[in-house]
Amino acid sequence: MSEELTTGPKESPRAPRAAPREVWKKGGRLLSVLLAVNVLLLASTLISGGAFNKVAVYDTDVFALLTAMMLAAGLWILFYLFRTVRCPDAVPYRDAHAGPIWLRGGLVLFGICTLVMDVFKTGYYSSFFECQSAIKILHPLIQAVFVIVQTYFLWVSAKDCIHVHLDLTRCGLMFTLTTNLAIWMAAVVDESVHQTHSYSISHSNTSYTRLAPDVERASSPVPGDPCPCNTAICQIFQQGYFYLYPFNIEYSLFASTMLYVMWKNVGRLLGSPHSHGHARSQISLFRETYFAGPVLGLMLLVVGLAVFIIYEVQVSGEGGSMQQALVTYYIFNIVCLGLMTLVSLSGSIIYRFDRRAMDHHKNPTRTLDVALLMGAALGQYAISYYSIVAVVVGTPRDLLAGLNLAHALLMIAQHTFQNVFIIESLHRGPPGDEPHESPPKEPCQGLTFANLDALHTLPACPPTPRLVGTSPAGPQEAVTVILAPRGHWRRRCLKDISLFLLLCNVILWIMPAFGARPHFSNTVEVDFYGYSLWAAIVNICLPFGIFYRMHAVSSLLETYVLS
Amino acid sequence: MSEELTTGPKESPRAPRAAPREVWKKGGRLLSVLLAVNVLLLASTLISGGAFNKVAVYDTDVFALLTAMMLAAGLWILFYLFRTVRCPDAVPYRDAHAGPIWLRGGLVLFGICTLVMDVFKTGYYSSFFECQSAIKILHPLIQAVFVIVQTYFLWVSAKDCIHVHLDLTRCGLMFTLTTNLAIWMAAVVDESVHQTHSYSISHSNTSYTRLAPDVERASSPVPGDPCPCNTAICQIFQQGYFYLYPFNIEYSLFASTMLYVMWKNVGRLLGSPHSHGHARSQISLFRETYFAGPVLGLMLLVVGLAVFIIYEVQVSGEGGSMQQALVTYYIFNIVCLGLMTLVSLSGSIIYRFDRRAMDHHKNPTRTLDVALLMGAALGQYAISYYSIVAVVVGTPRDLLAGLNLAHALLMIAQHTFQNVFIIESLHRGPPGDEPHESPPKEPCQGLTFANLDALHTLPACPPTPRLVGTSPAGPQEAVTVILAPRGHWRRRCLKDISLFLLLCNVILWIMPAFGARPHFSNTVEVDFYGYSLWAAIVNICLPFGIFYRMHAVSSLLETYVLS
Q: A403 vs A318, A422, B31, CA distance in Å?
């Protein structure tokens, strides 16, 4: 319907401030969101149904659905690429904020790991080809093709603001986004089922078999099973693909966020091709810091890796070493979270003395970043609150319960203060070019955070709003002059803080992503809520917590570059 | 922090287009959202923990938390009322869209029902005063006071755009909102637990005891129970308060939406005190319709009530009549949903020929309405998709399975098309005053939906965007003249459609809200997913479905008035 209305930009791509061609943008968005919601609900119904043993939904149904979705999304991507190559006028603007290099780099990295996982999966299922349905081997192959096509597509098109076939493009992007979310859900469910099986077997057999993969098949072979995975190569494939799941999960989430930003940018009109874009600062790692942040962060990272390995080794031993492993794990986490909380807090305090203007420009990428940080933090919040209730209401009053309580409280504080720090950072303009790009009135507003006396030294920056508007070009130079002498130590501190928090988030991501589950080794919550309820809470919330760490890392990298 | 900065408006309340006084509005909002998220998570942890029998969280803990929250929120409300009465300059603007009369009327109505429920609850718990903790009697009393204070507060202050103590007001509003959501959660959980107990008892005893309330106490009295509810008055109190739960649930949700809009309006600057506000149309019920809509709708309402009563009577009988009751229930619902789908679709088609401009003004109330409609529909979508998977994958191929499948498919179609119709309606300006209020260019844009030939008869309405801007005052009169002769039948049709959909939504609200649960009477899904999984799905999703109906009714009333 609106496609006839939107062929206009081809004739006049140089009129960037014209009225929007779309009569009603929300209508077009509504259509694509409805499509996405329905496809996603169908997929999640099948996936969640397949996760329960008693339900007659087989995993082949889920595989078939996912394969069909990936094929359809891949075909649409090829169509999109073909069309934009043939008609370059279709993309009159590019959003400078969308698809930053670290996001696209991360996407490629996780994409490669996903390809390795697909190779392992294909190898594993090929080991007993005769008793598997063909879809189980077809699925990883199609997935590999889809990952390659999608990664290329996002690499070249992440910044596009497309202006032809608006409705079709919106639906296509939403469908691809839905496909990625469905793959993410399937991976999360698969991992949780695997985890639960391991736990139940480890508690019935007393020997801890978390490292023995695909429990139904290998660890408890049915005597008459016609398809055993007994060969060494089959076992390696099995172990490998379970350890590569976290990368596949992150790949899907990265792709989803980039697709969402592309969807928001469909039909968007930007002032000029490069306005509002922060000048690309050079990433000169460690050069403008006091070294304290990165050094302390790297120390914590190394210690954390050692603690993680000790924990993994001890937790698979007997009961006595389990207790010791948990104490080590909790003490490390408490120290790490405490330091992060203090550092985030001091970063926010530094911003109180910062004179840079707040960036009020519309920016879908940043809005999404903030929403994802706040939303993903809910997962860890929920786990922490359940832990707190279990420890406070429950009876045990020993060392582990105390450590658990401190850990949960610090986790909440750390997420809160880190989010405040990151969100405030993302809303600041970069230090150098901001006085030249921002509208005239903004530096005066930004200064209200600083000492108000300084304002009166600026000739044209009025203390009351009534005088705003006189000689707008004057104050900018004055602000730049005032900022120059003291801005440097503040900037260095902020860079130190960003790097320290970044490295801490990396180690706090590694631990849960690669299988540390103190939630179950610790008996407080399991005894209080019962295993099935507590497993449901952790398995639903922890993926969000893991995603939060990943996303915080990318946001902190942006903070480091911008400050 | 920002309170010093925001005392400015007192001196100059007549400068409505000045720059915003707040340096960074998102910062203030972030603070209050963080508070709300943490309080809400703590409350939901306790409430969900208390719902499980095996967990050592007692309902007195939940009651104590809710009572404390209501006391704190009530005190804040009194502080707010006292402050705005003493200092009228604190509210320089009022949002004409916020708190429309039907929302406030509904709030008062549901508030009164909640008060009756509180009386019943107090009476019930007083019947065995000696073996209850005091908090169980205190809780309904405090709730009654809170409901009275909050209803008065929302009645007088729903439209306020307050400009003093911004951070404190945001936190207060968010805390009150959180209190309402916690009450809502507690009520939903309480009702679900009650429903599940009834089901398990009815399936162990074969006699259906859903109508016998508070199952643990009355229907299966423990022989040595020191606190029996045996007196007639106690039983009446018990039955009464379980039937009044739906009203309490709706009251909390109504209050939450109004509080959210107030929160969005804190510190908001409006162009002029009454700009963008639709002129208040007189609700002249049925006068401007063809009578077909209301008559057909009323017929369906009456038939639906009869079907509901027959269903409730038959379902409590033996197995044979249960089957018959389900068939009746499904056939009525399929007819009703089919008609609603067709009518919504025809409404959307009528809008394709409508020449009214789209209203692009910023409007937090409408944005929230749209988000709630889309979000609440997810509940019913999820139930329908689970039903579809159960019927398609499962084995039974009888009449009931077919009816169930048709019902689920039509439910999805009806929600989709009704949402599209309502959202499109809410984005149209009212018919009469729109050409005078909207900016000059909008009628030309709006006309692209109508036949494009007519455009060329307007002297100053250019067919291509490049010519926009010449003599903006000319086209408006022309549009009004052209619209006059044919606009009337379209308007009447839209009013008929709105009223018909409204009445249908009322009957589809009554059935689940007052206890019809074909989801459990029908054995397809229970057998497929197992009782506990299916109960979890229905108990989580159905409250959203019920809220959707309520909210659709209020949106359709607005559509009726505006069209």
A: 21, 28, 28
